[in-house]
Amino acid sequence: MATTGADILPMHAQSTINKLPLVRRLEAVGFRAWPASSVQYDGSWQIRLTAGHPSKRLNSVVPLDPSDHRDLEIRLAKAQRKFEAYGRPMVVRETPLASPKLIDLLREHGWTCFDETIVMTANLVDLELPDMLDHLPSHDVGRFVDASLVVDQADPALKPALAEVVSGIKPPSGLFVIEDAEAGPLATTLCVQDNDLAGVMSVAVSPQHRRKGLGVEILTSALRWARMRSAKTAWLQVSADNAPALALYVRFGFREAYRYCYWQPPRAA
Q1: Residues 6+ apart with CB under 8 A from 261
Q2: Distance between CA atoms of 148 and 158, rounded to whole angstroms?
Q3: Is residue 229 pLDDT above 80, yes or no?
Q4: 3-state secondary structure of 35
Q5: Which pLDDT score is estimated for 268?
Q6: DSSP labels for 32-57?
Q7: Residues 12, 246, 255, 215: is their CA dihedral positive or negative?
Q8: Cβ-proximal residues to 139 (8 Å cutoff; 6+ apart), any chain
Q9: Which of 2, 52, 57, 17 is nearest to 199 (CA)?
Q10: Cβ-count burial 32-66 (b if 16+ within 10 Å, e if not)
Q11: pLDDT digits (tens, 9 = 90+) for 27-76
């Protein structure tokens, strides 16, 4: 099923919609579902750093109060030094909680916006899930990490860092893997239940096994597991330009809650 304009709003339109309480709650559970190794605060800015993993969600400045716009240039310079100490490029993550004055400053200084992402939610209580093979979650972090790296075709050197991130998740989590005896891992997903919210952190299918229903199968298993544990709302994050994933999630009843993007400084000449 294709997405429509009613399903996904342009980022600028969200400024007119009062969704800040929902955004704050989803940001909070998102931080717990994908924990950075170092979290520091400068006012309402959360500075997330993880030396071993390059994920932008684990290495970014995340402003959390639209009214916090004091000493912007001084604070950006301080944050830059922290990122340099970790050997990470500095990025600022813009959600509806970011101060408009901060975003204006970044734009004026030549920063560029990239990687727009849609945060979506679905009502699990009334959701009709497909009747198909159910996969039980694993608690073997090593097995899940190995499978994820294979399915994502990621650098095997990331295994220790990814294992540290997954092991650091405090809320109950289900590690889902679909694999074949000959072909190996085919699909993976991670579902984190935080009270009545369940976060689907990724739905990954091996490139050579896509369009075979594996995404539907593993997402169904994760959502069924979350609902059995009394979660009432599911949430996930997806790249705004990932049309196949968006179509899959809309089929499952997911609708846009808000968007975020990243800002990076201009490269030195």
Answers
A1: 11, 93, 94, 113, 114, 115, 116, 117
A2: 11
A3: yes
A4: coil
A5: 62
A6: HHS--SEEEEETTEEEEE-TT---GG
A7: negative
A8: 175
A9: 57
A10: ebbbbbeeeebeebbbbbbeebeebbbbbbbbbeb
A11: 999 999 999 999 999 999 999 999 889 999 999 999 999 999 999 999 99
Please, what are the domains in the chain?
A: 18-23+36-116+260-264 (no CATH), 125-231 (3.40.630.30)
Q: Supply the Cα-derived Rg of the chain in whole angstroms.
A: 19
- Separation CA 109–CA 128 (nearest Å): 48
The pLDDT value recorded for residue 30 is 97
As given in the structure block, the two tokens for residue 42 are 């400068």
Please report where in the chains the tokens 């893997």 appear, as a residue. Answer: 177
Q: What is the model's pTM?
A: 0.90
Parallel, antiparallel, or unpaired: how do β-strands 45-49 and 60-63 relate? antiparallel
Is residue 133 classed exposed, middle or buried when 0-12, 13-18 and 19+ CB atoms within 10 A define those classes?
exposed
d(CA 98, CA 62): 8
